């Protein structure tokens, strides 16, 4: 991926937070109730998940997942990202 593609993926992931509430996803106002990320690892997790949600054969597994499970997936992925970063810095 080149820098422009990476930037596009990061912006798309930030603007489509997988762990957002059902109310946010169903709302027409993206700004209202936007779930602010706790830290950089949550942003990274959201970006990775958003990328996976755009891939044939994988994206269907991310559909129709309840809100609690979406939050758990993002938080677990963020914990893993933080730990890998801690071990390799």
Give an overview of the whole structure.
The protein is mainly α. 58% of the residues lie in helices and 0% in strands. It is built from four helices and no strands. It has helices at residues 3-15, 22-26, 40-52, 67-87. Helix 1 (3-15) crosses helix 3 and helix 3 packs across helix 4. The relative contact order is 0.16.
Secondary-structure map:
Blueprint: H1 3-15, H2 22-26, H3 40-52, H4 67-87
Amount of beta strand? under 5%
- Principal-axes shape call: globular
Query: Which value, in Å, is the CA radius of gyration?
Result: 13 Å
Number of helical regions: 4
Major sheet: size, sense and barrel closure? none
Number of strands: 0
Helix-residue proportion: 55-70%
Structural class: mainly alpha
The residue-averaged pLDDT reads 93
Please give a handful of descriptors for the protein shown:
mainly alpha, globular, 4 helices, 89 residues
What is the gist of this entry?
Helices cover 58% and strands 0% of the residues. The protein has four helices and no strands. Helix 1 crosses helix 3 and helix 3 crosses helix 4 (67-87).
């Amino acid at each position: 991926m080149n820098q422009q593609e990476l930037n596009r993926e990061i912006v798309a992931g930030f603007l489509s937070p997988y762990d957002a509430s059902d109310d946010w996803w169903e709302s027409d106002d993206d700004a209202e109730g936007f779930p602010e990320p706790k830290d950089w690892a949550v942003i990274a997790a959201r970006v990775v998940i958003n990328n996976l949600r755009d891939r044939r054969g994988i994206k269907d597994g991310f559909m129709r997942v309840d809100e609690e499970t979406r939050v758990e997936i993002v938080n677990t992925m963020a914990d893993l990202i933080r730990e890998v970063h801690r071990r390799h810095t």
